[in-house]
Amino acid sequence: MSAKPNPSKAQDVPQFVLYGEAEHHDTLEFLHLEPIATRSRSNGWVIKAHRHARLHQLILVFSGAVTAWVDEQEHHLDGACCISLPPGIVHGFRFAPETQGVVLTVAQAMVTDLADERTKTYLDALFAQPEIISFSSSSAVLRQLHSNVQQMMEEFRSINPGRQLLCEWLLQTVLLQLSRCVATQRHVTETRAPETQHMQQLRALIEAHFTNHWKVEDYARTLNMPPARLNRMCKTIAGKNAKALLQERLLLEARRKLIYTRATIEHIAFDLGYADPAYFSRVFQQAEGVSPKVYRQQHDAMKELEDGAGPG
Predict the structure, then answer these.
(1) How many angstroms separate the Cα of 180 from the Cα of each of 141, 176, 191?
(2) pLDDT by residue (tens digit) across 151-181?
(3) Taking the domains of the chain in order of start, what are their residue ranges?
(4) Which CATH number applies to 194-309?
(5) Contacts of 148 (CB under 8 A, 6+ apart)
(6) What is the band of 195 on the pLDDT scale with cuts at 50, 70, 90?
(7) Which value, in Å, is the radius of gyration of the alpha carbons in the chain?
(8) What is this structure's pTM?
(9) Where are the beta strands (DSSP E) in the chain?
(10) What class is the 27-185 domain?
(11) pLDDT at 1
């Protein structure tokens, strides 16, 4: 059994600007680009589970392979691909040795600054949720991305006049190219249907307010639509009603905290907006089939087995 790039059970999931580096005051203006090998090679091509606050990250693989753990999902990717990660998403990687590609890290505030009336829809769609984009080796888009990223790398390392402006222009180009790929993979045209736009807005609202325990009616009112229409939209696009989406997001955060932190069950309940920890435990057990305490014990035991197995 190969060890997954998970943190020790005794530690909270680390939060970095760059992998292994603590957050610093320049985060809001942060833009960084480096080859995948820069940090992976010295770590045995394994990047353990971590997350970034207020930072978007793109892992662009041009050749090689990677196993990616994104939240609780495992993805085996062979060949050229891109992994798009919004802020706060727990992720880790195991790269095949000598995988070629780049890691592009950019502050959420910088993406917001780049988004105007014409580009906001596309950039929001790219980072609304984690995305994995696969490319064929003959893809014209892949060649364009490679060229733009190489030029960005040259500018990033240079001291040329206008270096920052050109990097921002190239960054916007890369983000728009990737957003187009996401739309194609979803079989959505660039002139997105209103329901698709509303769904993206709903997901953003859920991310902002799920710990406030907004009701379906609160989201519907903010989106200026009747609750019945909101539920129909959710069932059509996501296959479940709005209430189920809200509970799904709360449970995802609960599982994250149980697996990656040592916070008590009571603290986790309060962090998630539950006034009564016992009620939180009942909700969790009804959804997961086990209590929060047992769920944590099961994952602790699993990580002990994985850590004992060593690299495969």
Answers:
(1) 10, 6, 11
(2) 998 988 888 888 888 888 899 899 999 988 8
(3) 27-185, 194-309
(4) 1.10.10.60
(5) 170, 173, 174, 177
(6) low
(7) 20
(8) 0.60
(9) 31-35, 46-50, 55-63, 65-70, 73-78, 81-85, 91-95, 100-107, 131-134
(10) mainly beta
(11) 37
